[in-house]
């Protein structure tokens, strides 16, 4: 399967419509581009209001045993319980922007099968340590991708026209840094950041871990990167993005981990990024490099580095405003306002 085609002629019509609205041309800046971007993807000169679905994918990472995170792996499962109870940042932001939310356990170490309010789709209890061996088997990686695809498919069938993938996984900035280095060619020094808040010495060690992992997979084809260096939640997010693009539904990309998943999706389908909008620039080093590689430019920078889909959820109201302005403003002609050429 490949990504759905864009409606470029509709985008042109939407641009003409934008230019007829009662404001100096271009005065609404990127809000104008956003409205036209949705027009091209919905195939409607005046796009429908957005009905967003956020899926948070959670999994643990074997590489945590190398001392790459400020927090222990146990926090991943504890945060999943917090998501299920509605107490995390993403719960608040989802309520705020009117998005539906699902939480998917694709590979958390503890048994959460007795917890209500989450989808139980555990592929395995955390990945293997990517410094020493492949994070997943090819079959496990495929299974995680399929889970992400089916979550996207269900959200679309339920009427969502905007999809957001969030991540929860202690250690996943190390896996993401490996993927981003592999896809951009940038050095670990440029890409590796402080994640959940490690010290400078720990970051230097994290750089060495990423270097070691990259050396371990040197010479392997790009198609094996996700399986070797990724995480179960990152693979599920990649599948989620691939399905959205194939179904012709836009996605908003969150931060560092989401961008690594987007790069992994692009290895499988290079056109998948046509359906991606970048929300924010994460404070994590190397995020701008990842976005540049994706050909995306973030809409805001609030110096966030949370994950969970939080940055993407934060901009949903801005996207709604862009469409409401595009659809609801009077034109120079209808309002009897003189345009610049008289
Ligand atoms: O999304 C981001 O840009 C981001 C940047 C830094 C950290 N995080 C979150 O923090 C966790 C990973 O951090 P670490 O230090 O354990 O690799 C994981 O749960 C992510 O959702 C997320
Ligand atoms: C508490 C906590 C919440 C998070 N949400 C996403 N990543 C996280 C990492 C930690 C440590």
From TrEMBL:
Pfam family, one: DBI_PRT
Keywords: Cobalamin biosynthesis, Glycosyltransferase, Transferase
GO molecular-function terms, A-Z: nicotinate-nucleotide-dimethylbenzimidazole phosphoribosyltransferase activity
Organism of derivation: Mariprofundus ferrinatatus
InterPro entries, alphabetized: Nict_dMeBzImd_PRibTrfase, Nict_dMeBzImd_PRibTrfase_bact, Nict_dMeBzImd_PRibTrfase_N, Nict_dMeBzImd_PRibTrfase_sf
Catalytic activity: 5,6-dimethylbenzimidazole + nicotinate beta-D-ribonucleotide = alpha-ribazole 5'-phosphate + nicotinate + H(+)
Compositionally biased spans, kind Basic and acidic residues: 8-22
NCBIfam families: cobT_DBIPRT (TIGR03160), PRK00105.1 (NF000996)
Region feature (Disordered): 1-24
Protein name: Nicotinate-nucleotide--dimethylbenzimidazole phosphoribosyltransferase
Pathway named in the protein's UniProt entry: Nucleoside biosynthesis; alpha-ribazole biosynthesis; alpha-ribazole from 5,6-dimethylbenzimidazole: step 1/2
Family: Belongs to the CobT family.
Principal EC category: transferase
EC identifiers of the protein: 2.4.2.21
HAMAP family, per the entry: CobT (MF_00230)
Signal peptide interval: none
Gene: cobT
Residue stretches spanning the membrane: none
Function statement: Catalyzes the synthesis of alpha-ribazole-5'-phosphate from nicotinate mononucleotide (NAMN) and 5,6-dimethylbenzimidazole (DMB).
Active site positions: 308 (proton acceptor)
GO biological process, one term: cobalamin biosynthetic process
């Amino acid at each position: 399967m490949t990504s759905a085609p864009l409606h470029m002629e509709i985008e042109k019509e939407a641009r003409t419509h934008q230019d007829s609205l009662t404001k100096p041309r271009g005065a609404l800046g990127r809000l104008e581009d956003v409205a036209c971007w949705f027009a091209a993807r919905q195939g409607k000169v005046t796009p429908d209001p957005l009905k967003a679905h956020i899926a948070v994918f959670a999994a643990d990472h074997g590489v945590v045993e190398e001392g790459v995170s400020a927090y222990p792996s146990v926090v991943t499962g504890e945060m999943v319980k917090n998501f299920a109870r509605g107490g995390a940042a993403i719960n608040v932001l989802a309520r705020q922007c009117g998005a539906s939310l699902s939480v998917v356990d694709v590979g958390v170490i503890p048994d959460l099968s007795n917890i209500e309010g989450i989808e139980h789709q555990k592929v395995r209890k955390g990945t293997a340590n990517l410094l020493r061996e492949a994070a997943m088997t090819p079959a496990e990686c495929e299974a995680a991708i399929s889970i992400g695809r089916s979550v996207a498919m269900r959200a679309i069938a339920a009427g969502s026209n905007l999809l957001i993938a969030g991540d929860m996984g202690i250690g996943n900035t190390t896996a993401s840094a490996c993927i981003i280095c592999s896809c951009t060619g940038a050095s670990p020094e440029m890409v590796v950041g402080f994640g959940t808040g490690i010290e400078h010495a720990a970051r230097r060690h994290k750089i060495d871990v990423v270097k070691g992992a990259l050396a371990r997979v040197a010479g392997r084809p790009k198609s094996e990167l996700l399986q070797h260096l990724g995480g179960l939640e990152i693979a599920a997010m990649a599948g989620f993005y691939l399905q959205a693009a194939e179904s012709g539904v836009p996605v908003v990309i969150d931060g560092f981990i989401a961008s690594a998943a987007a790069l992994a999706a692009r290895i499988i389908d290079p056109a998948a990024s046509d359906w991606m909008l970048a929300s924010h620039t994460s404070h994590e080093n190397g995020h701008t490099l990842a976005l540049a590689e994706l050909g995306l430019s973030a809409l805001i920078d609030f110096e966030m580095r949370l994950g969970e889909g939080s940055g993407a959820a934060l901009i949903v109201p801005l996207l709604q405003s862009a469409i409401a302005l595009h659809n609801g403003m009077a034109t120079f002609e209808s309002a009897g306002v003189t345009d610049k050429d008289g």
